[in-house]
Amino acid sequence: MTARQIKDGIRRFFKRQQPEPPEDPYAYVGAPKKPRPPYRSAAAEPER
Question: String of b and e for 18-47 (b: at least 16 CB within 10 Å)?
Fold first, then answer.
């Protein structure tokens, strides 16, 4: 075995494994965002 093969084998041994996915399929789904008010132009005059 060459030094490169040994180094690659050690890297593969210590490589992080992917965590198992959760049982709940919606675990990584984000909550819906709140609706924003419509944008108003800064040049618009206020109503009286």
Answer: eeeeeeeeeeeeeeeeeeeeeeeeeeeeee
Q: What's this model's pTM, rounded to 2 decimal places?
A: 0.32
**For the purposes of burial, counting CB atoms within 10 Å of the CB of 14, is it exposed (0-12), middle (13-18) or buried (19 or more)?**
exposed
- pLDDT tens digits, one per residue of 23-48: 887 777 888 888 877 766 555 566 65
The two structure tokens encoding residue 19: 């965590």
Task: Provide the 3-class DSSP secondary structure of residue 28.
Answer: coil
Length of the chain in residues, anyone? 48
